[in-house]
Amino acid sequence: MANAVPSSHTPRPHGVTFAQSVGFGLGDFYGGGQTTLTATYLSLFWTRFCGLDIQTAQGIIGGCTALSALFALFFGALSDNLYRFSVGRRFGRRRLLLLVMSPSLLIGIVLWIPGLHPGVYCMAYVVWMMLFQIFMTAYNALPGEMTTDFRGRTLLSTTRLYISNAASTAIPLIGSAVLTALGEHTASSYQIFAMSFTVLFALAMFVCWRTTWELTPEEAGFAEFADGTRTNGHVGFAGWMRRVRVLLRDYASTLRIRAFRQHLAIYLLLMCGMDVFGQTFAYFVIFDWGQSAAFASLLLTLTVLALPLMPACNWLLARFGPRTVYAVGFCGMGAGAVMMIAAWLLRGVLTGAAWTAFATASAVLFFAFRTSAGFTPWQIFPLIADVDRIVTERSRSATFAGVQAFFRQLCSGAAAMIAGAALALTGFDATRATQPFSAQIGLACSTAGIYLTAVCLGWFVARGFGLDRRTDGELLAETERLSAGGAKKDVDPHVRRTVEELTGVPYDRVWPDARE
């Protein structure tokens, strides 16, 4: 698809009310909730009730996740260019995708039906992950389009994270209650809460669609399509090939933005670690700690700690910037991961209430500090498009969302398959009541060891991250000056350094249409 035509229209300022932020945030009831639901219970359900071994289950999850990365690129380009078509101009280029998703999410019910062929689970999970890519592409672009105000964007992102964490807490809490009441050795116990939440995801997506808005075609650079002076016309095979080449160059160009490369590295380390942790934590608790699946679910409800801690994280982010927030979060998460491994090694040394208190403390520490580290990327992402706009003169939020989702799914899929293969090599078998010591080591490494490695690498990258509220404000002001006809030679030296540090592009090459 060809590039958008830069528009002379400046996005109108929009205020965001709390009710509107809640409507937007309900979208992440699905985003955060489905991740918790599938990561925590799906592999466990498949290996216990559907006849799949750990390598097959993780292979389906990882392979389909990696395959869905290709969908991320397609949907990113589609969303950015839907205003070229009448259906996009009528229903929106972002919100149309959310509307389509609402009923489509019910396909997730198939994942929780025992006795099906592995190929059916595979196809259903491909569709499930494809829908998640549609969501990530459209949803992540909305905060940057709903308002240009930093406080408004922060309200949207914070509310979104509150609701996401509420879903991530409610699912294991309700799961623990259901498994305790009905027993964790029957498939219906898992089906009751899994299918119920799938229906709630579809309803939440509908509410999100009803309560959000986005840039108009004129504001997004598609004025010529909106007024009918330009149409798509017949393209042909050669034209499509040309568009594919342009599209691939467009995606590749996102990686020249230095702030995005840094953000992407931190985000991938956190998300991949979180995905593998979620997929193996229940196994770790059952077989390394010798506890029940209900106890694992109960510990996962400690994500509720994120709710009271988010205002503090928000204050830290505004006061000290993302580098400090990342450093605090990474140190606390690393300490929690070390304590989880120690709790496994101390079984039999600490007994009864002392061991339970120590194990619970490790989870409290881990989930409390995961709040600050996991909170920050979502506050930073809406600012990435501001950095890009001063270079390209375009609004490419969905393109960046597509690239981010592509790498996230590709890396997470690979990590899931590697974790499954590694556990199989250690002799892990989910149908056994106990595991050999080699399998216990594999579970400890997959659950806590991978996260410990990720936070160390993430801390190293975050030390050089410079995008924050102050530098974003400088970028926006300079973009406004250049778009109003300001000359590059009149730039303030400090602003010039800020632009070059964040973009990774020499100042003379930004905003090509500006006067020298």
UniProtKB/TrEMBL annotation:
UniProt KW keywords: Membrane, Transmembrane, Transmembrane helix
Return the GO cellular component terms, semicolon-separated.
Answer: plasma membrane
Q: Which Gene3D superfamilies match?
A: MFS general substrate transporter like domains
Q: Name one GO biological process term.
A: carbohydrate transport
Q: Where are the transmembrane segments?
A: 56-75, 96-117, 123-142, 162-183, 189-209, 264-287, 293-317, 324-346, 352-369, 405-425, 437-462
- What is a single Pfam family found in this protein's UniProt entry? MFS_2
SUPFAM superfamilies tied to this protein: MFS general substrate transporter
Report the GO molecular function annotations: symporter activity
Q: Which InterPro entries match?
A: MFS_2, MFS_trans_sf
The identity of this protein, by name, is Melibiose carrier protein
